[in-house]
Amino acid sequence: MPTPLAGPVHRPDRVRFVRAFFKLVVHALFRVRVEGRERFADGPAIYCFNHLNWTDPLLLLAVLPGRPKFAMFGPKEEDMTRGVRNRLIAWAGIGIPYRPGKNDLIETTRRVQRVLDDGWIIVIAGEGRIHRGERELLPIAEGTAYFALRGHVPIVPIAINGTSWLGFRRQIRVCVGEPLAGEGRANREAVAELTARTSAALLAMVADYPDPPEPGPAGRWLTELFNDWPEGSRPALAQGDGVARPRREVGEADPR
């Protein structure tokens, strides 16, 4: 029987250390511009971001305000004691892990609700996996809207651009969008409607960003260092500004 996964724990000293470390690293390597800082939430909310690279959560650790407290939804793991990344997340107390199968959905939902009830922000990669193009967006998993409606908190879309190819002192843009109210019952129609609004907001926010040129060997190495492509290798850039794929059900495990 697997050991129950723990939720986030308030460990301010450890969180400050982790955030200070990644802030130093991120700003030493890249030029980061944050737009819409005034739209960061003052209370419980869900930050839904697009996912281009393994560095995106670390980038957010470096730029998000320290208050309210926040936790990252994920990773998808059976055992948080394995691997450097998992042990770091568990040590800092900033993760809401969930199991790869569908046998942990009720407890995961309860874990998320407890975090929101305590006034925390939850940060979610809405697509559930990385993708290739700066203007591309995979379907947003409906669990993001379900959590927001169930917790009666807004979704704040956050668009990250510039991380599809990493390079020393290249620009990265983080754009904070207008909050989307999580009001009403968490039924199928409301979840689908809020998911569509979230997807449309993110697509509009990334629509103007060009795909950066491929970097040299060091940049390619850094870009792909921990990228886990479901296709087995870096996929070709899809045509158009968005990719239409079947939407996953509420709480369905992502394919990453």
Protein model, in words:
The chain has 256 residues and is α/β, with parallel strands linked by helices. It has a single domain (12-224), classed as Glycerol-3-phosphate (1)-acyltransferase (3-Layer(aba) Sandwich). It contains 7 helices and 7 strands, in the order H-E-E-H-E-H-E-H-E-H-E-E-H-H. It has helices at residues 12-29, 56-63, 84-92, 105-117, 143-151, 188-206, 217-224, and strands at 31-35, 45-49, 70-76, 95-98, 121-125, 155-161, 171-176. It has a 7-stranded mixed sheet, sandwiched between helices. Helix 1 crosses helix 2. The chain is globular. The relative contact order is 0.20.
Order of helices and strands: HEEHEHEHEHEEHH
Large-scale geometry: globular
Provide the CATH topology.
Glycerol-3-phosphate (1)-acyltransferase
Main sheet: strands, sense, barrel:
7 strands, mixed
Strand content: 15-25%
The quaternary state of the protein chains shown equals single chain
CATH class: Alpha Beta
Question: Structural class, from secondary structure content?
Answer: alpha/beta
Tally the helices: what do you get? 7
Count of beta strands: 7
What is the straight-line distance between the termini? Answer: 24 Å
Strand neighbour order, sheet with most strands: 1-7-6-2-5-3-4
- Chain-averaged pLDDT: 84
Question: What is the helical fraction, as a range of percent?
Answer: 25-40%
CATH architecture: 3-Layer(aba) Sandwich
Q: What do we call the CATH homologous superfamily?
A: Glycerol-3-phosphate (1)-acyltransferase
Low-confidence runs: 238-256
Radius of gyration: 17 Å
Number of domains: 1
